[in-house]
Write a structure and sequence with these properties.
Radius of gyration: 15 Å
Low-confidence stretches: none
Oligomer: single chain
CATH architecture: 3-Layer(aba) Sandwich
Number of domains: 1
Largest sheet: 7 strands, mixed
CATH topology: Aminopeptidase
Shape: globular
Strand order of the largest sheet: 1-2-3-4-5-7-6
Number of strands: 7
Structural class: alpha+beta
Distance between the termini: 26 Å
């Protein structure tokens, strides 16, 4: 498996994988994915034989991103690397691809000396994602309720290496 930065040509594949992860990943259009890639500090894909199997898109604080979840972290924390979305194709789950992507995120966060921020859907529940995040040393730091959903806000403290 190889890891590389996402590029414009990856947008249709990113969108398809994101759709497979609904409702946990949050619905976005291909145009919104393009904007996220422009705003991102880190956007990586996991590829096998040239096929995108999974991805992660992360942002630093204070970008022009309109997500309520992202805004919550901006209001409460000065520094973080925000995981806007991480997703793996349905057929390639349980192969440690998500963990491998997170290892790259943690490396970047350590380089920047910041914690990693993420959220997990509470309503509707996403117990698999909650287990995944706890396994990767995330801690609950709050709950954000809006409209028809609620999310558990999580942080993984900066790890000194």
């Amino acid at each position: 498996m190889e890891f590389r930065s996402l590029v414009t040509e990856d947008i249709p594949s990113v969108w398809r994988i994101n759709e497979e992860g609904l409702p946990g990943t949050g619905k976005v259009s291909e145009e919104e994915i393009a904007i996220l890639l422009e705003l991102s500090e880190l956007s990586l894909g996991a590829y096998e034989g040239g096929k995108l199997l999974g991805f992660v898109i992360c942002l630093l604080p204070e970008t022009e991103y309109g997500s309520l979840n992202y805004a919550w972290f901006n209001q409460k924390f000065q520094q973080f690397l925000y995981v806007d979305r991480i997703a793996v194709t349905e057929e390639h789950r349980s192969r440690e691809i998500g963990s491998s992507l997170y290892a790259k995120v943690f490396f970047e966060a350590n380089r920047l000396r910041v914690p990693v921020a993420a959220e997990v859907s509470l309503e509707p529940p996403n117990p698999g994602s909650m287990r995944f995040h706890f396994r990767h040393e995330f801690q609950e730091v709050g709950v954000l309720r809006h409209e028809s959903k609620s999310v558990t806000m999580m942080m993984r403290p900066h790890q000194k290496i």
